[in-house]
Design a protein that fits this description.
Layout: H1 2-8, E1 25-30, E2 34-35, E3 40-46, E4 52-61, E5 68-72, E6 79-84, E7 93-102, E8 107-110, E9 119-124, E10 133-136, E11 142-143, E12 150-153, E13 166-169, E14 172-173, E15 179-180, E16 184-187, E17 199-208, E18 214-224, H2 227-235, E19 237-252, E20 255-270, E21 273-282, E22 294-301, E23 305-312, E24 315-317, E25 321-322, E26 326-334, E27 338-348, E28 354-360, E29 372-375, E30 380-385, E31 391-402, E32 406-417, E33 430-442, E34 447-459, H3 469-475, H4 480-493, E35 503-504, E36 514-524, E37 527-536, E38 552-563, E39 568-578, E40 590-600, E41 608-619, E42 632-648, E43 650-665, E44 673-687, E45 690-708, E46 714-735, E47 738-749, E48 753-765, E49 768-778, E50 782-793
Parallel strand pairs: 2-9, 11-18
Antiparallel strand pairs: 1-3, 3-6, 4-5, 4-7, 7-8, 7-9, 10-12, 12-16, 13-14, 13-17, 15-16, 17-18, 19-20, 19-50, 20-21, 21-22, 22-23, 23-26, 24-25, 26-27, 27-31, 28-30, 29-30, 31-32, 32-33, 33-34, 34-35, 34-36, 36-37, 37-38, 38-39, 39-40, 40-41, 41-42, 42-43, 43-44, 44-45, 45-46, 46-47, 47-48, ...
Amino acid sequence: MNKIITAFALIFLFSAISPAQTKHILSVIPTQRGTEGKDLKLRVEFANVADLSKVKLFYKSTKEGDFNQIEIPLSRENIVVVTIPGTDVKSPALELFLEVIDKNREISYFPGKTPYELMQIPILTTEGAGAVIILSPDKGATVRQEEVVISASLIEVENFDPEKTQILFDNIDVTKWAMVSAELITFVPENANLQIKPGRHRVAIILKDTLGKVVAQTSWDFYVLSPVEITRRERAINYGANFELELRQESVKNQGNFYVRGRGNFNSSYRFLNLNTNLYLTSEERSNIQPQHRFLIEGNLSDWVKIGVGDVYPNFSPLVLSGYRVRGFYGKLDLRYFQVEVINGETRRKIEGSLSREIPIDSLTGTLPQNSIYDTTTGKVLIFSYGAYKRNLFAVKPAIKFKKNFELGFTYLVSEDDKASIKFGGNPQKNVVLGSNLLLSFDGGKTEIRAQGALSVRNENLKAKSWTDTDIDSLFKDTPDLRDNLKKYRPLIEKFVPLNQYIVPINPLGLSSLAYEASLNLNYFGNFFKFDYIFHGNEYLSFGQPYLRQDIQGFKIFDRLRLLKNQVFLTFRYENLNDNTKRQRDYTTKFINWEVSGMYSPLINLPNLSVTYSQSASNNGLPYTDTLKALDVVVNKLSFDVSYNFEYIFRNRVSFTFSLTGSDDKTVLNSDFNNTAFVFSLYSDLRENLRGNFLLAFNNSKFKKPIFDALGKFIGTGEEKFNYISFGTGADYSFGKMRVWGNLAPSFGDLKRLYIYFGGSYEIARNQSLNFNCNLLFYSYIDIVAYLTYKITF
């Protein structure tokens, strides 16, 4: 199985920006060039989606500190396309990782082993030659007369002369009334005594060099409302809705399932009031698993008040509460200089334990198992599988802020299992976290300082009796300092959690449950630099951010230089991390990762080139003969990618990707791995309504596998190879209101499979459509995933 997963990881490795993959995700590939402000689609391929329970995509701009997230809906289709909204697509690059939870509740990440190993996608500010960033009004915007201010950023433009800049408003040269600098253009119509009439208006900005040659230009339209239209809009109720119904049939490894899924969205606005409703229903909803349905009703009162009821994904703090689903109430009050957010609901619903087996009381040799009861009527012991307690969460975050330059916030979170919610469960727990965050931003956001910290305490068994002072004296008589501190702070601690042997940390003053992060961002002269320091204690845990990496500290450096009007990107990344933060073990594992890359994306019709070299090293310093714990592995990867758009008979896009990956395991296990991969792809627009594609991939892998005897003793290393060739071809054809597509992709060698994908869509009416897709995967068995989707928009 491992060999197949390794092979899959390189079949569709189109781009050099896809780092080493984990075992569950084979590749994450952008389907088009990233452009600021435009939706970015990512093609995600899983090794076997049937093994997965939940997958989340975390992403952010390199200029931002906090991650946004998207939960990827899972079926059993191994390929899915995820869309990052254009509002979140910002230059110079997006950083992302995927968090994967499998059916065994094990957590893994892509592209690396931790959420700190990020995949990066360059984001260009424009697709064409112009690099002027429109600030206001937006393209196609509808504004009031008094709101008209023309503004554009020039930070992406090089080698232009501000004195030769030209600004046209409705074909009238208004340059002399505008404020023009090397970085910004601002024009206020009132300064030119220009009367803005209702209707459509056009703005053009032309930038020239010292010789008068145009180096960049842009133009856009916007619409000014008349008094009558303003009144009509204020009185009118605007609304929109869309609904989607999906019927899905899946047969994976001869196990068939049929699903019915429905999605709906309704939004409306009246003057300064906004209402939005989201609904997701699925036949997968069952009472013995966590909720699969999703719903949300939220309303906004201008920008001041926001209220939501349903499934909310609040982002209070990356350390305390970030993107974790809470079903309940969410509220936000923003008073310009003061803001408060509150969330109250449940993160886990109750699921009663189930009876697993019955055994006679006479068969027991000791005490009753913890997960059992004795039935006196039958004389049998009933053994149960534990259920899940209902878990409630409350969090509040007040913050003081000033525009986008300053924020000081504090987050308080308490999350507790309801002991009375079920009869048969494990140990109910309670978690309390107190955190704070600070933002300082200078020079228009070009310099940012961010800091955040949090302290957690939890009790892992609320059923246990709390300690008395006598208990503490007896248990900690050999550690007087700890004994005195526990007795001194016991009244304070028990205001939050019970104090007994299940409290973590046992010594809150030891700071093992402390986490903090600090970062510095500098963005000057086409160079973005970021420095991060992190410390996550080995016992820090927030139930609002349960997947945060524990027991890690160190620093990270990121530097990206843009040259030649954003045609050249040079990137350097370095991480130096280690675990064992409180010296709780006799060895410490160090993680040193670095990467250098260069990308050339010309504005003229020349090939796009990129090359990346990376190294990841992990070492815990233990003797190499320790086959259970010793770790000393170095992984090197070199990748090269070239793509080119050209016209020869047809409009074509061709790309080549070549990569070399090798690992050196210096321990006695000697689990080395080497891989060489080459991928060629071609897309051709044969006609305006017909597009064809072709792909050819070669993969050669060689890896060493440790061999153990029946007693688990290491006895040697075996060598295995895995080589294959894969190619694929397909077409996409549109005619009238219909569109059909299909792809065929066989693989030969050590990987023998045939993948067939086909489908079509039909536009029933302007606001209605049908979509059909079918995926066939032929091994020794046949996997089938087929679904029909109906969409309607109002």
